[in-house]
Design brief:
Strand order of the largest sheet of chain B: 3-4-2-1-5
Strand order of the largest sheet of chain A: 2-1-3-4
Number of domains of chain A: 2
Largest interface: A-B, 41 and 55 residues
Helix content of chain A: 40-55%
CATH architecture of the largest domain in chain A: 3-Layer(aba) Sandwich
Strand content of chain A: 5-15%
CATH class of the largest domain in chain A: Alpha Beta
CATH superfamily of the largest domain in chain B: NADH-ubiquinone oxidoreductase 51kDa subunit
Distance between the termini of chain A: 24 Å
Radius of gyration of chain B: 22 Å
CATH topology of the largest domain in chain A: Glutaredoxin
Structural class of chain A: alpha+beta
CATH class of the largest domain in chain B: Alpha Beta
Oligomer: heterodimer
Structural class of chain B: alpha/beta
CATH topology of the largest domain in chain B: Rossmann fold
Shape of chain A: elongated
Largest sheet of chain A: 4 strands, mixed
Helix content of chain B: 40-55%
Strand content of chain B: 5-15%
Shape of chain B: globular
CATH superfamily of the largest domain in chain A: Glutaredoxin
Radius of gyration of chain A: 18 Å
Distance between the termini of chain B: 33 Å
Number of domains of chain B: 3
Order of helices and strands of chain B: HHHHEHHEHEEHEHHEEEEHEEHHHEHHHH
Number of strands of chain B: 12
Number of strands of chain A: 4
């Protein structure tokens, strides 16, 4: 059975306290973010049920929210997820070529994960970095002004990072 | 050099931290408002300033505030809309990232005016590193006595919380945002009741954009009347524009709404012109939902007047011959760009972001994307262009929230102004796969229609 650490449970209480009493459902989005970070980068049914129990919600209330928002992963993803923007302003600055380059470099299609479980390629819609296009989200941060060389460097950086943390 | 009210101090080293921000005159507006003004007087100043909502709709902020219901014993809430997701728009991100205390200061003054003791910043989930910046600013402001209980000994209590979304453009619509803040799917509500009467947790609520709330700071510092004298007509004050696409200097600029569109694109102070000596083909001047204009209608209005960067001038000519200031997301297309492809990416965006509640939007956005895909990839028919027109017309005005309109307008404007390019795609299915239609006649001077 999964469970947050005591430290994370303190964080859970802190988040719930931001909202008026009895309105703990408001803490659902922040708790799903926290759970996704803690339990492997995606939301399994078990994880969602656990979040439901923390907020005294019916599991369905959690499922219907988790399936609505694009940042919650409902399937396992690679250790590093490249979320490349493909909307108009990024397209004007060459995002199609960047997506093609990543596909070729990692030998995967959009929505796929490399065989070693290291990388997932996802295309996303406008992330608000239009002036710094083309761009991708990698974890918490944006990687902007992408070029094939920059993509190479990012892949290298992820591999090194993974090796150091294994 | 235009006057800057918001970004004036953006480049001061260390301005993100409290000490420097305060030394540079920060939090004066909180002192002034809480110690010398009543909440209603603050609202009155905002009314006088003529400030219009900076999120896209341009509704007068002071009026919105005055609609807030104030029943006895019921809490009221201010919610800051930081769900910035309109393609082309990244100004709020800049403000929050580099001037977090300016937003916090504006939030405290606005919370005081509205009587909000718990104020929420709803920030889009993808801006995942910004909550840390905002929460640090909140901590610093609290430690310095600008937040918490009995602020400045006035008896006013206020807390600010950051609430992170999780990836949904629709949550920028205020009632969807409220649903999301309540921990639900971001399905917009039917209005009325308006949030001013029944908002978050069924309490009276005001939802304002980040830039709008930051603008309250200079309004209180300098007075509403002084603010209203900056700009022109009903476009008062300054506006942040986020410029992107095919320009030399993409970025966030503050303008006082007295410059021309041409100056904004070509002067070195702003966008710095178009790279590689290319010519201007088209522009979406206010975020992806507003009508795209070809170069000839962008720089001059149908009456032959110079088009200016303000609410009225950008809208001059209505939808047939004008556009909108919108969110200030300024997207420039050079002569090499394909309007069909650009429209396809926007149609895909709206299909992806439709919440699915209303059939015209849920189904219509999907159809529009499919038809545009066919045209773009050489499988289109001439009748598809009329079909697209028909679908967008059936979405517009037939949905609970404005996402339907936002999805319909870019398609309508693209067909209205660039029909030749769509037809060329259909007639040249092979050639259009490796060559673009180009600039064609889209920059040629237009015949001026006498007013």
């Amino acid at each position: 059975m999964i469970k947050f650490s005591d430290e994370k449970l303190k964080k859970v209480d802190e988040i719930i306290a931001r909202y008026p009493q009895g309105k703990q459902k408001s803490a659902l989005l922040p708790l799903l973010h926290l759970a996704q970070e803690e339990f492997g980068g995606w939301l399994s049914v078990e994880t969602m049920d656990y979040v439901a129990s923390l907020l005294k919600l019916e599991p369905i209330e959690v499922y219907e929210v988790a399936t609505f928002y694009s940042m919650y992963n409902l399937k396992p993803v690679g250790r590093y997820m490249f979320e490349v923007c493909q909307t108009g302003p990024c397209m004007l600055r060459g995002s199609d070529q960047i997506i093609d380059y990543i596909k070729q470099k990692l030998n995967i299609g959009v929505g796929e994960t490399t065989a070693d479980g290291m990388f997932t390629l996802k295309t996303v819609e406008c992330l608000g970095a239009c002036g710094y296009a083309p761009m991708m989200q990698l974890g918490k941060h944006f990687r902007e002004h992408l070029t094939p060389e920059k993509v190479d460097a990012i892949i290298e950086e992820c591999r090194k990072n993974a090796a150091a943390n294994n | 050099m235009a006057r800057k009210l918001l970004l004036e101090k953006a480049h001061v080293e260390g301005i993100r931290g409290y000490e420097v921000y305060r030394r540079e005159g920060g939090y004066r507006s909180v002192e002034k408002a809480l110690k010398t003004m009543t909440p209603d007087q603050v609202t009155e100043e905002v009314k006088k300033s003529g400030l219009r909502g900076r999120g896209g709709a341009g509704f007068p902020t002071g009026m919105k505030w005055s609609f807030l219901a104030k029943p006895e014993g019921v809490p009221r809430y201010l919610v800051c809309n930081a769900d910035e997701s309109e393609p082309g728009t990244f100004k709020d991100r800049y403000l929050m990232e580099f001037l977090p205390h300016l937003l916090i200061e504006g939030l405290i003054v606005s919370s005081y005016a509205l009587g909000s003791k718990s104020t929420y910043i709803y920030i889009r989930g993808e801006y995942a590193w910004i909550p840390d910046i905002l929460e640090q600013a909140i901590e610093e402001a609290k430690a310095a006595g600008w937040l918490g209980k009995n602020i400045l000994g006035t008896g006013f209590d206020c807390e600010i919380y950051v609430h992170r979304g999780a990836g949904a453009y629709i949550c920028g619509e205020e009632t969807a945002l409220i649903e999301s803040l309540e921990g639900k799917r971001g399905n917009p509500r039917i209005k009325p009741p308006f949030p001013a009467v029944k908002g978050v947790w069924d309490c009276p609520t005001v939802v304002n954009n980040v830039e709008t709330l930051a603008a309250v700071v200079p309004i209180i510092n300098e007075g509403g009347e002084a603010y209203s004298k900056i700009g022109v007509g009903k476009s008062t004050g300054t506006k942040l524009l986020s410029a992107c696409g095919n320009i030399n200097k993409p970025g966030v600029y503050e303008i006082d709404m007295t410059i021309s569109v041409e100056e904004f694109i070509f002067s070195d102070e702003y966008c710095g012109g178009i790279p590689n000596g290319k010519r201007l083909k088209a522009c979406i001047p206010g975020g992806s939902s507003v009508p795209i204009l070809p170069a000839n209608l962008l720089l001059k209005t149908a009456k032959g007047e110079t088009r200016m960067m303000n609410y009225e001038s950008l809208a001059d000519g209505g939808f047939p011959k004008g556009s909108m200031m919108g969110s200030g997301g300024f997207i420039v297309l050079d002569e090499d760009q394909c309007v069909v492809r650009n429209t396809l990416t926007l149609a895909r965006f709206y299909r992806h972001e439709s919440c699915g509640q209303c059939s015209p939007c849920r189904e219509g956005t999907g159809w529009m994307e499919k038809i545009l895909k066919n045209i773009e990839y050489g499988k289109g028919k001439m009748s598809d262009i009329d079909l697209l027109w028909d679908i967008q017309r059936k979405i517009e005005g037939n949905t609970i929230c404005p996402l339907g309109d936002a999805a319909a307008w870019p398609v309508a404007a693209a067909i209205r102004h660039f029909r030749d390019e769509f037809e060329w795609h259909v007639q040249n299915p092979v050639e259009s796969q490796h060559r673009n239609f180009g600039l064609a006649h889209y920059a040629d001077p237009l015949e001026v229609v006498p007013a």
